[in-house]
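For anyone still unconvinced, we reproduce a single protein record, the chain in one-letter code, the fold tokenised, and leave readers to judge:
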Amino acid sequence: MQRNAYISTAAAVVLMVGGPVAAAAATTSGAAGAPSAATAAARADVDATGAAEAAVKHHPGTVVSLDKDGAVWHVDVIGKNGKHAELTVDTRSGKVFTEHADGDDDGDAQEKKQLLAAKVDAQKAVKAALAARPGQVRSVDWDDDDNGGARYWDVEIQPKGGGATRHVHVDATTGKATVSSSDSDSDSDDDNDNDS
């Protein structure tokens, strides 16, 4: 009887100190003590697609860019109502916070029109880029070809085993992904070397 009281007390302490994730780990561990799939999923970081989905759920519209910075994603969205929002999505919880929202994007009206009319959105661009170059997405940006003005998504991907990031350009009309022949710019590599 006293043994059951000790076990109940220990379980209560785990719930109070460790919260729901620790409770899930305690109750769903396998016989060998390995964490279950549910526990592993609870610890998984929100990826680029998840960050984009969370952002547009919070501020309905079209994603303009995503950028992973440590434990957060910075996501720019142009709303269906024309309002621009700069959002932060926590990579661990998926919670969305509004950094800034305004009534006008201050950007080029033609660029905004092209973005909203694109057949391939940021989420589709991420999928196409990962199919062409597997790894972890670090950033997604709406961009254009300086020479011809063709619009595309620039997706920066770091290989899973590490190494230099590469840029994959995804055509905004066809969804065709082309891996850049040059290494990525060094401006974002320093910020992302310690991300996991």
Q: What stands out?
A: Residues 52 and 63 are 7 Å apart (CA to CA). Residues 1-43, 184-196 have pLDDT under 50 and may be disordered.
